Structure formats: structure tokens, C-alpha cells
Amino acid sequence: MAKKKSAGNKLFVLDTNVLMHDPSSLFRFEEHDIYLPMVTLEELDNNKKGITEVARNARQTSRNLEEIVGAGLGNLEDGCLLSIKGNKHATGRLFLQTDAMDFSLPMLAGSIADNQILGVVLALKKKHPEREVVLVSKDINIRIKARALNVPAEDYFNDKVLEDTELLYSGTKELPENFWDKHSKDMESWQDAGRMFYRITGPLCRSLLINEFVFYAFEKPFEAIVRSIEGNTAVLEIIKDFTQVKHAVWGIAARNREQNFALNLLMDPEIDFVSLLGQAGSGKTLLTLASALTQTLDKKIYSEIIMTRVTVPVGEDIGFLPGTEEEKMAPWMGALEDNLDVLNKSDDDAGDWGRAATQDLIRTRIKIKSLNFMRGRTFLNKFLIIDEAQNLTPKQMKTLITRAGPGTKVVCLGNIAQIDTPYLTEGSSGLTYVVDRFKGWGHNGHITLMRGERSRLADFASEIL
């Protein structure tokens, strides 16, 4: 590394898992330089075979590396420019390990790949005392070892949508007690097709988002959805009250405010994409299935319901289970079976024969699909439910949502506190990604369900355990 750099320019040593998690990470370090130890390239090579997401990313990383190294035909010791393929913001250089380094670490077993990477970082710190050398890895254990050796180590944060998931858009806003004092001047109200609208003007309107729910919980409670915003003026529509039994959807009435908001989104044909977040037992799957059945069987808006979920480990073959794709997916679909049992019992007058007939009819309209065979498909007039969506990466989420053709509604359900996919965190999950990117779009709705509604036992257990 002949060229001296300014002290503010860092040297990032990348662990293999960063490259296999995000092949574009090579172009994400702006003006800083990247260093790849030889063992990282070896590990990339070992992981390139197969059809898993990791293998695809390893191959894409190798292609990116070839383009970078091929573009800088000069001396590798001077580094290769990263500003290729239109990545003008990446002004740093890529350095590959071109010579053997003395990285004896008496505390650690030398042949393990992680320990070799740590040795390279220590050797670079000695070689370039004037520069800040930082190890970047998605592996918690190597970061702990690095700190024990006094080596700066960081997680790879670039794909994080939010630093803190507490800041994630909840889809609702509580109005302050003085709301009407400040916003009722020049207020207009009118009715259209049986729906009640208010046009309000005031300082709070600027902070609202389209299809965000607002509620006033003081004297004369009020619940509405934001339909349009222009500067300091917003149009609010009074929502339908699904907590009343007469408005029940497939026999299911909302049990709390958030469930009521969720049913308003699920039953609105103008909203194409709905995301529901919530803890276990908050009613995500039940509400979604109830509204899907009503709109498919009674209103005939959609031709069928398609339900899919991540079979963790994600992207792997769904195993040597006997039967068709539907039968292979059956063990993963316990939640669907449980909720269908509840929905079938809601009709007391039908009797056993009637219920059995309804169950058969429902079965013909619900298709269970594996995520692995989604690429290239287009769904027309379908109600697509993506369960356990927190286990999807942003890239997989994009692949799924772009399957939607005309007349299709996509509903993503998940709980970002229960992520099973390795290297995905609450901040980088595909579910967090879509909630953040879709907010404010006119055909999107999102609700975070706060309360579990399973049973007093489940509620007590979630609090106390």
C-alpha cells in the first residue's frame, strides 16, 4: 500500500459474512478503503456452490471483485478504484492481501479463518500506525474476540433501515387534548357514499401521513384515517367500527382499537399493500384470513387466497417430505389450520354438515405456496398473505411483492422480535424495510398491533416470563 492516505480515511477489513450478506457492500464505504484478506477470498470460494441465497451472494461478490480488479489494471499494491459501475460515491480503494503477513496470535488457534482475519487486522495496524484499521463482521463472536485483542470491530449497518426499531412507523397517531382548539377553525364536513369526511387545518397536519390512523381518546372519542394532505390541511375519513357485532367480518369482531384499524385496512379495496406487525396472539393471521374469506367467497373481489411463509432455513429445499407442494408446506402451516378452525366455528346455525361443506369450500379457495417457486409468477385478482415476513431479507421481500398483478392485495404479517434467519436483525429485516419504505403511499396501510388477545393465560405468561 504505497500511497499514503489522510488520517481521516479509514481502512475497513471485511469478514466473508459481510460480503455474503450483501454483495454490494464493496461499494458502501464511501471515501474509505477496503482490505480483503486472502482467507476471505478462500471462504467465498468455498461457499459459491448451490442455489441458496448465501451461494448466490458469494458468486455475485466474486463477479463484483473481478470487475473492480479488472478495471484497475495497475499495481494491486496501490489498490483498485471502487468507483466503477456508476458507484461514484465510493471514492476509496480496494486492497487485496498480496503478501504473507506474520499474524501469530498466541492466544488463538492460528488455522481458524476468523483468527487469521484477526491476525491480518493486527498486522495492518502495525504496518499503518497512522491509519484507523477497523474489522467489519456480522459475526458477534469475532467482534468479541477483536475487542479482547484491542482491535476496533463493527457490525455491518448499511442495510439497516432504522437504528432503533422503536422509531418504526406504527400507523397510528394519538391526537393531543387541545387538538380541536387548534384545528377546528374553518373546519368543513360532508358525506359521500355513506362515509363521513372532515377537512381540518392546523399545525399537526404537516406531520400526518396518508392512510395513517388518528384517534382522540378524551371527551367525545374520535377515530379516523387520513385520506389526503395539502400543506397545513388534511382530509380525515371516519372509519367503520368493526368492534360492533353487526359489522363482524366472517364472524370476527375487533377486540381493540388497533384490530379495528387493521380490519379497516384489510377490508378497503383501494389499499393494495397492508403490513401488520404484532406480538404472538395479537390477531394478525385471524383478522387477515377473516377479511380474505369475506372478500373472496362473499364479495368475490378476489378469485382465491394464496398463503405463503418462510420455511426457515430460508431458500433451502423444503425437504424430502412426501406429496405435492401443498402437502410439503402443510407442516409449516399450523397457524393457518388453527385460525381456520376458529373461523369455521363462528357460524352456529350451520350444524355439522353445513360446517363440513363450508370447510371444503374454503379449502378449494386457499392455496398454500412455497416461497422457493415464486420467481417469475404473476398473481391476478389474488389475496396474497405472506406470513412470518420478518424472516425475509429486503431482496426476497421485493421478489415477492413484485409478483402482484392487477387486482391483487398483498398482506405481510410478522413479529420482528422473532427473527429466525441468521444475520437478519430487527433493523435489517425485510418487514422493517417495507414498513419504512411504503409509509405515506396512497395505496398502503400499516398497523402495529399492541395487545395479545389469546387468553388470560397467554397474556399473563407474556408479561411475567
Automatic annotation (TrEMBL):
Keywords on this record?
Answer: ATP-binding, Nucleotide-binding
Q: What is one Pfam family matched by this protein?
A: PhoH
GO terms for cellular component: cytosol
The UniProt record lists the keyword Nucleotide-binding: yes
Q: Which domain of life is it from?
A: Bacteria
InterPro entries recorded for this chain?
Answer: P-loop_NTPase, PhoH, PhoH2-like, PIN-like_dom_sf, PIN_dom
What GO molecular function terms would the record report?
Answer: ATP binding
Annotated PIN domain residues: 10-144
Q: Which family does it belong to?
A: Belongs to the PhoH family. In the N-terminal section; belongs to the PINc/VapC protein family.
* Protein known as: PhoH family protein
Organism of origin is: Candidatus Methylopumilus turicensis
